[in-house]
Amino acid sequence: MQELNFKSGLDNQKKVMVTLFWTNRKAARTEGCAPFRIKKIETENETYTPQGTKLLKISDDIMEDMVQTLDAGKSIPMEFNIGEEILNVSLSEDSFSVTAQKSPEIEEEIIEKLEMELTKKFPNLCDSFTPRVRPK
Q: What does pTM read for this prediction?
């Protein structure tokens, strides 16, 4: 497991999206074009999992719950799957941790990238990523 403590001027919604994006992007480097699947998100109020064969997307309600959890000083454990890799992530308002089951070396790559991105005023975030995880 790799951990990062950070100070960021980003709002909590942006922190969620930046951590999701860079976790996906760095894992894709080893797993290729495999789909990024959100397997579980645990907030203070609810545990979100995919229903049946549907992919779990971050609806406005889920995002609001995530932001409220971070605002309350709580952490959000999440589980992702990309290819054969399973990633367990925990995000709080000022810390992030990641565990990769198959390729632990990507943990360090994710942490290094987030260390840079979370301190930027305008972090890099691919425009096509947001609609894939946050449908309108």
A: 0.91
